[in-house]
Every structure is written in C-alpha cells, then in structure tokens.
Specification:
heterodimer; A: mainly alpha; 7 helices; globular; B: alpha+beta; six-stranded antiparallel β-sheet; 14 helices; 29% helix
C-alpha cells in the first residue's frame, strides 16, 4: 500500500488478467462483456484486490506481482463458474462431473494454445504488463484507423474481414496494417521504462515448443 | 504474400485464430526472426480478452465501502493534495456535476456534454511544462470528448488550477524567455475554476443554475405595474406585445442560485428618500436601483426596480436582454457607452428615454435621465437636489468608486 505506483500497476495487471479469463476465450468478440448474475469484471477486481491486500505477508512465498496474478485468475474463474453454473460446455463428455466445467459465458471456445506461462505467474504478470504498455502506447500514438485495427485484432479478436468491411479496406490491407502497427508498438515499447524486458524471449531462452504443431 | 517471414507468420497466425488455417510453425525462421515472431504471437495470445476500452476503477473506488476502506488514507501521502481531495472539492462545486477518480490518476468531472479531466502536478504553480503538456495532450487524445483539462498544482494552498482546451496544447508560441505562451484561462483555485468552466458551458444548458421548479419567471409588465407577478411557470407569453417571455430575478448573492430566491427578493424594499449613508449590503460599489425605459427597442415603457445583490435577467432569445443592458449603459454613460441610442429608438414611439437611478456607495441617489431628441440627446442628472451636466457627470465617472458602478451595471 505504501508504494502507490506499484499498487496501481498490480491492480491494472489484475484487471487485465481478469478480462483475459472472462473474455479471452469467447469465440464471439461481440459477446456482451458482462457475466450472468450481473457480476462484472470490476466486481471481480474488487474481490481480487481485497484478497490481495488481506493476504498475510508472512505467507508470501513469491512476489506480490506473482501472487496478484494467481488471485486475479482464481477470482475470475470462480466468477465464471458462478455465472455458468448449471451450464455445460458442448464438448463436455456426459460422464464428466460439473465441477470441472469451467467455461466462458459463450460456450464456444477458440482453440487457443495452452499458455505455457500460466504455470509461472511472474512471467504471466510481465507478459500482461507488456500488453498494457502496448495498449497505452496505442492509445497515445495511433490514429483512429490504426487504433481500430489494432484494438480489434489484438485485444478484441475481431476478424480482419469484419474490420475491413467497417473501414472500407481489404482484409489483406487490414492484416498488413496490423502487423505494421504491432511492430511499431513493440519498437516504441522497448524504449518505454514501464515495459518489462527481463523475461522477454531471447534465442537462448528455453522457449517452449509451439503447441499444436503442424496438422 | 510477403517477403517478410515474420509478417507472414503473424498473418498466418491470424488465419489460425480466425479458424481459417492450421497454426503456423516457426521452425523455418532464422533464430532472430523466430524469437521476434514468438514474442509477437505470445503477445497476441496474452492480449486476447483484455478490454482496450475499459478503464479500471481506481483503487480508492474499489476499496470504498469495504472493510479495507481504512487503508484509504495510507494510499496517498500526507501533506500534499491528492486525487481524493481534488475529487472531493470538485464534487462540492455543483451537485449535478459528477467527479470521479480515474485509474490514470486523474479526476474526471462531467456534466451533460461537458467532460473535463483534472490532472495533479506536484508543484506550487500549475505551470504547463513540456512534460505536463505531453500528459495533457495524451488525455485529450485518449478521449476526444474531453473538453477541458485542468492542471492542478498539488503543492499549492488552494489547489490553483490551470484550465486548458484541446487547441491550446497542440502548438505553442515561445516567448523570448523560453516560456510557452498561449491564451489560457486564468489560473484559479480549483473550485472556482470548475465553477467558471460550468458557467461558460451554461448557455447551452437550459436548466443550468436555474432550478425551474423553484424559480418563478417574472412578468416584466407586472413588475412595471408594480403588481404581484402572476403565478405561472411556463414563461409569460403575454409579456410584451409580439414578444416572448422574459423573467427578471434578483438574488441576494451572486453565488446564490435562483433556488434560494423568494418572492420578497423580487420586490425590493422601497427605500425612503432619506439616505443615511449606512448601507451594509454593498459597501464597495454603486447599485442601479431603478431603470426606466421608454420607446427603447422592444420596450415601450418599462420600469425595473432592482434589489440588492446580483440581478439575473432571464429570457428567451430576442426578448431584449441585450437591449436592457444597452439601455442601462447608455443611460449611465451616454455617448461614452458606444450605444447608438438613435438606432435604439422604438419605431413609432413618442419618445426614447432612459432613466437610471443609481445608489452611490455613500447612499446618495444619483438620478440620470437621457432622452433622444430631434438633434441629439438631452441629459438630466440630479444628485442631492443639484443638477449635473455631462462634464460634471463625466468627472464623477472618473472617481474610483463610480468606476465600480459600471461593473455593477
């Protein structure tokens, strides 16, 4: 609490983690960003922040940042579970018990790869932090059209075709604009003091093999 | 199709995410490219689901009302003003405007279409340094609806604030001393700055500062006849021939809204002829006590009795608010007022005449009457039973106390 900047950073990160859990896997990007039962990401964030602040420092085995990731994700999954109670994913086998049915509001899943850094909360924190820096830079530096493309593809999961129709461009042009903007933002982010780079992947880092692989 | 392998991989990955293609592999890339591509793809996966348009509630608002609200004071260093203080001050300015602490450490202040942000700088003066300017610009760019950004000097005693508009931070002129120069709002204590901002936006807001439920539109003709104003609230259509509604309100204090106005205020106590010089209500300035117009623009014959304090003239467009003020100015200053009285003459009016009764700070009554005649204007000014001519009056305007009379007007 004494370090306000750090607390804000952690809270920002928890908010991002919660959004990822609640909305990161929905196939439909237009799905309403609210949980059934009226809970919102902000309610979950409040829960998580209180849990974090009430945590006994004596029990702390890791950094507060890493702890915050765990708490935020746990709270978000709990909220999802409450919101989807009684609903079963279409893929759930009939014999699977309900208590492992953790699904997002939209039952359909995108086949996102298993994120190898989920097991490493510190890494998860830094990666989310990187995205928050990119987000801030995008807000500050992009023009409207670039921002719409970047937000749409990068965060909201819109298809290039959807964006292209909105903007009167071709899908290819949208894709190229996205990549151009993405690289620009990463370049700008490396000069940003808030951008964590310690765990940035390097050729020598033990990067996990790409999941999924060729078909 | 592209020659850039990293771009190709990212695009292929988007295909994968959109369900169009299998997940691409990175095996064919050079180590450097591979690391770069891996970073971009990882980022894309991590970013998915973060809401780019959400603004995180502040820690303060999250903890407010929870068992942990006791932590709130510790969140902000003591001694220097903080966002909570700023939000509290702003919240007290007008109950209809909303102040809210934002996660970026600014306070959002809004009412209807007015959206302002207040940014704290840890200085004693709200100087807009280049760094502050960048911050302010970012605020305007982040939300195009932002109409003003206030730079609040956290180290100042009364939170001195510099209000800025979007076009004032875009480009600047630099003075020879190297200080940026723009035509800015005056720096004011926070509450005043917010108040000023609200009032500047007021003309577009029909209900601003006037609680319709509590104010009673005043019928000018009724005032002229010194009768009781009629008790209708919808604006008196029958006010002036061919004209629309107007109301005149006198209030006790400038800050007092019409909410507090009572009927008694609309009809000032008639002062008897004897002025004993003891006038605690307006120790510093002169007061226009009576304004009488004949054949002046929209007004055929109108007498306004004005009470202590500030008087609001409220009416729809075209009713004659400006005419009223111009009449007062011409009545007081004649040709010095730059008001063309001849042009103000009402078509078909028998005479064009303005009488102003001015109560001086010492309580004496200065009665001025001007009239447009065939070849010019006539003046009759009376003070203490003696007549003043234009020169006598002009000499009087040069006295400091009288100069304030013009601002009272």
């Amino acid at each position: 609490v004494a370090d306000r900047a750090r607390l804000d950073k952690i809270t920002d990160n928890m908010y991002a983690q919660i959004h990822r859990v609640l909305h990161g896997r929905t196939r439909d990007p237009g799905a309403e960003r609210a949980l059934s039962g009226g809970e919102s990401a902000e309610d979950v964030l409040q829960d998580a922040l209180i849990a974090l602040l009430e945590y006994d420092p004596a029990n702390l085995r890791t950094t507060w940042e890493a702890l915050s990731v765990g708490i935020a994700r746990k709270k978000a999954f709990a909220a999802l579970r409450r919101a989807t109670k009684g609903r079963r994913s279409g893929r759930t086998a009939a014999e699977d018990p309900d208590d492992v049915t953790v699904v997002s509001i939209d039952v359909a899943h995108v086949d996102l790869p298993d994120e190898s850094d989920e097991a490493d909360p510190e890494r998860a924190f830094e990666r989310a932090q990187q995205q928050l820096v990119l987000l801030r830079l995008a807000r500050e530096r992009l023009n409207d059209r670039e921002r719409q493309v970047f937000f749409g593809i990068h965060f909201e999961g819109l298809t290039r075709a959807t964006l292209a129709a909105d903007l009167g461009l071709t899908s290819q042009a949208v894709g190229q604009m996205y990549v151009r903007v993405l690289r620009y933002l990463y370049t700008a982010a490396r000069d940003d003091p808030m951008f964590p780079t310690t765990n940035a992947p390097t050729p020598n880092a033990p990067t996990p093999p790409t999941k999924g692989g060729p078909p | 199709v592209t020659d850039d392998p990293v771009q190709a991989v990212v695009l292929a990955f988007l295909d994968h995410l959109e369900g169009l293609a299998p997940r691409p592999t990175l095996d064919h890339l050079e180590p450097d490219d591979r690391a770069r591509a891996q970073e971009l793809l990882d980022g894309l996966v991590v970013a998915r689901g973060i809401d780019p348009r959400a603004s995180r509630p502040s820690v303060e608002s999250l903890l407010m009302g929870t068992p942990l609200s006791g932590l709130l004071p510790a969140l902000n260093p003591v001694g220097n003003a903080d966002v909570t203080t700023v939000a509290r001050v702003l919240a007290g300015v007008d109950p209809r405007a909303r102040a809210e602490i934002r996660p970026d450490g600014t306070v959002a202040y809004s009412y209807l279409d007015l959206h302002a942000r207040f940014l704290l700088v840890p200085t004693e003066n709200p100087l807009v340094s280049e760094q502050v300017r960048t911050q302010v610009r970012a605020l305007f760019e982040a939300d195009p609806d932002t109409s003003r950004v206030g730079v609040v000097a956290a180290g100042s005693h009364d939170l001195v604030t510099q209000l800025l508009a979007a076009d004032e931070v875009g480009h600047s002129i630099t003075t020879p001393r190297g200080e940026p120069h723009t035509r800015w709002e005056p720096t004011l204590p926070l509450a005043l700055a917010a108040r000023r901002m609200l009032e500047q936006s007021a003309p577009e807001w029909p209900s601003f500062d006037f609680d319709q439920a509590h104010s009673e539109p005043l019928d000018l003709t009724a005032v002229a006849g010194r009768g009781r104003p009629p008790r209708h609230r919808t604006g008196s259509r029958a006010l002036l021939p061919g004209r629309q509604a107007a109301g005149v309100q006198g209030t006790g204090r400038p800050r007092a809204t019409v909410r507090g106005t009572r009927r008694a205020r609309l009809h000032p106590r008639r002062r008897s002829g004897s002025h004993d010089g003891d006038h605690p209500h307006h120790p510093g300035g002169s007061m226009i006590r009576r304004l009488h117009l004949q054949g002046w623009r929209a007004f055929d014959d109108l007498t306004l009795e004005l009470s202590d304090g500030l008087t609001f003239v409220v009416a729809e467009n075209g009713v004659g608010k400006t005419s009223l003020v111009q009449a007062a100015a011409w009545g007081l200053y004649g040709g010095l007022s730059n008001v063309d009285a001849r042009a103000a003459a009402r078509v078909g009016a028998a005479r064009t005449r303005v009488e102003v009764d001015l109560e001086l700070p010492d309580g004496r009554l200065l009665a001025i009457a001007r009239e447009v005649v065939e070849r010019g204007e006539t003046l009759s000014a009376e003070l203490d039973g003696g007549q003043l001519d234009e020169a006598g009056l002009a000499a009087y305007w040069r006295r400091p106390s009288a100069r304030r009379a013009s601002s009272s007007a």
